[in-house]
């Protein structure tokens, strides 16, 4: 793989997110919106100096992203940190993510934005700016950035357990599925992260809530990552922000997909999809499903309406486990997935509703500890 993808174009590589990265998922948009693609080049042992940015822009980071918290790295410093970008953690529509170690011994994830990404600089500025001003235990931490020449890189804390996606779908041989209470604890942490964003001043709409953008630390505590699509919410008496529809199939709120009207409650719908993924172990949108069951919400709707069928929604990998609070979790997902945005709950109510579902009853503690085994 060449380290400077700006030097030669190549085909997109369809690789799933690997453990430990930050913001590694593929960005998708509706069929009318062309997505940017990363590239995949042959290996090179020489790191050339970065080119100056095109169109006469300054190569210095502060001119691009002023007043940013975190260290400003040079490209050569990050080449050392990542050992010449050797250890790739994953890739997505806006670039690749590498594992590295700083001179202080901190393990980090370094996202290098693709030069060919249509909105690479815009996403870079949005993400670095957002993470510089937002601080919460359920948001990934910004360590630093690099804006040198055409290079745009973001340095995050390293998340050793990878993404939630890694723990729900296509498990590796011998990998244990997440037990019920861990799933509810992850949902609760994600909800707290969204609650913080929505209650910020100004409010922040995450806009790309999905399992691939939920990273897990060593204790499986979740943190939201990849803020490249995040936007400030409506101000004053406005009800929405009008914007180009971008994100990932299966997670779009109906009003956003149809009209481009983005609301704080659009995030709530996407959270409902993630909660349904946690319950069912099924992808939000499965392109490879040949049984007309590609869309998770469409597949689940008949069961969501019938409490007697709620057990049919449970991930087959934990179906035999004790899942107290299942009907409450399904009811919450149903409420979040309402077609009308205004009737969806606020995230502070979601947080309160989920809290008791994260604690196993004393009588179930023993069963919960083994619920992931078969």
From TrEMBL:
Residues 1-67 are annotated as: Disordered. Keywords: ATP-binding, Cell membrane, Kinase, Membrane, Nucleotide-binding, Serine/threonine-protein kinase, Transferase. It is found in: Cell membrane. The lineage of its organism: Eukaryota, Viridiplantae, Streptophyta, Embryophyta, Tracheophyta. It comes from Rhynchospora tenuis. Its main location: membrane. Residues 83-358 form the Protein kinase domain. One of its GO terms (cellular component) is plasma membrane. This is Protein kinase domain-containing protein. InterPro entries: Kinase-like_dom_sf, Prot_kinase_dom, Protein_kinase_ATP_BS.
